[in-house]
Amino acid sequence: MRLRTQVIVTIVISFSVLATLVVSINGVLATQRFRQLEDTEVADQVGRLRSILNKEKDDLAAKLSDWSVWDDAWKFLSGTNPTFAADQITASAMSGNALEMMLFLDPQGKVVHRQAVPGDSGAARSAALFQLITDTPALRPNDNTADTVVAGLLGLDQGLVLFAARPVLHSDGSGPAVGTLIWVRDLTTERLANLAERLQSQVHLWRQSDAPTEALAQLAGGNRGIQSAGKIAGMTVLHDGLGKPTLCGQVVLSRRTWQAGMTTLWWQSATTMLALVLTGFGAIWLLDQLITRRVRLLALQAAAGDHAQSAIHVDGQDEIAELAQQVNQLRNRLQKTRNEALGAAEAKASFLAVMSHEIRTPLNGVIGMVNLLGRTPLNREQQEYADIISSSADNLLLLLNDILDFSKIEAGKVEIEHLPFRPST
To answer: I need a surface site. Which of 13, 30, 41, 321 has the fewest CB within 10 A?
Structure first.
């Protein structure tokens, strides 16, 4: 694998691992943060629900004070103002105070007067409320203090109601109390819709005994639950007018924070990936300019060998430029050594040629004289000596020819002769 390919593969793998780690860690941290923000939003909405219900309770109790601390109402329960109900407890008074029911009780808890708006749920609700008031003396404050009030939510089989009860006193707040005045305001669908509009969330109120199983499971599991991909609910325990935790409320809101966070996370991840991709391409280009291109240029110039007309040159002041200088020095040393070797070989070849020529000349004279000597009358012993001299001279001439052939081979000047011969011999 070439260096440039190795660099590209290494950078791609490194940046892929880095991108995966960055996006994964960022996703985990962002998801946790968005979940915390969503939990905070749910808790805030649940807190607002409790706050609104408390405000509605306090508002009802405050309006009730204007009626319970009133001489005309005191006289009505005392039996000295029989026209009070007809004159004061009118339909406009009921609707102006957003009431569905008004009860006047004597000190023993018996109903002196009951006024209900048209369309009231009727006898079933009245019977349930009467039974609850009869069985619960705490709902009938009979002391002589104008600030005494019992107010809150009550859970009936027919639904939840908001009530307030105060002792009936004189207009100056003096007693004795002659009974109890109770106001009842139904939490109708319209009022729950108004409450949901104020919260910008869906609102459900139940007695815990009537709540859906999923809501009770959510209440037991941490007051937070995801109903769907786009909805999240918060649960809270609500205390009734007697201070008992018998009620519960649920706020269902859209997961705007989560959805916006996921959208932001997606764009952030995409931007991060794009930035890393561009950074990777930039790193590849930079490394190619600083390293791989210059190394490739160095390799190409070095591969030119003897054909190079100039020294290897690589721009820069770094290690690659130093390597180019070292290669130039090495090439110079090799070229010098080569020239010296060629000079030595040429000198040797010249020496061998000269020496072979110089030796061959007297040797030819010896061979010629021996041949002439062999033609003269010689005894047997002299002829033997002459033959030995002739054979030795011929061998020495062959040796000189071989040495001359080797010098021609080294000099690259070998000439191939074409001579006939017989393969059989």
So the answer is: 13
Return d(Cα 45, Cα 250) in angstroms, integer: 10
Residue 124, CB-side half-sphere exposure with 13 Å CA sphere: 6
Q: Which two tokens stand for residue 194?
A: 């108004």
HEC assignment per residue over 352-420: HHHHHHHHHHHHHHHHHHHHHHHCCCCCHHHHHHHHHHHHHHHHHHHHHHHHHHHHHHHHCCCCCCCCC
Of 28, 97, 37, which is closest to residue 68 (Cα–Cα)?
97
d(Cα 317, Cα 294) in Å, to the nearest integer? 12
Q: Strand ranges (DSSP E) for 257-344?
A: none
Residue 141 near residue 105 (C-beta atoms within 8 A): no
Looking at residue 361, its pLDDT comes to: 82
Using an 8 Å Cβ cutoff, are 279 and 11 in contact? no
Contact (CB, 8 A) for 217 and 200: no
State the pLDDT at residue 51.
94
Nearest CA among 120, 217, 213 for reference residue 159: 120
- The answer to whether 241 and 247 are in contact (CB under 8 A) is no
Pairing, β 180-186 against β 101-105: antiparallel
Backbone dihedral angles phi then psi of residue 78, each to the nearest 5 degrees:
-80, -10
DSSP state, residue 69? B
Percent of the chain with pLDDT over 70: 92
- How far, in Å, CA of 425 to CA of 420, rounded? 12
Rounded (to 5) percent helix, strand, coil in the chain: 60, 15, 25
Instruction: Supply φ then ψ for residue 21, to 5 degrees.
Output: -65, -45
**Residues of 201-233 as b/e, b for ≥16 C-beta within 10 angstroms?**
bbbbbbbeeebeeebeebbeeebbbeeeeeebb
Place of tokens 């325990």: 237
- Predicted pLDDT of residue 121: 54
Output the pLDDT for position 53. Answer: 93
- Residue 237 DSSP SS3: strand
SS3 309: coil
Q: What is the DSSP string of 118-156?
A: TT---HHHHHHHHHHHHH-GGG---SS-TT--EEEEEEE
Q: Tell me which residues of the chain have a pLDDT lower than 70.
A: 1, 118-126, 142, 221-229, 305-310, 410-414, 425
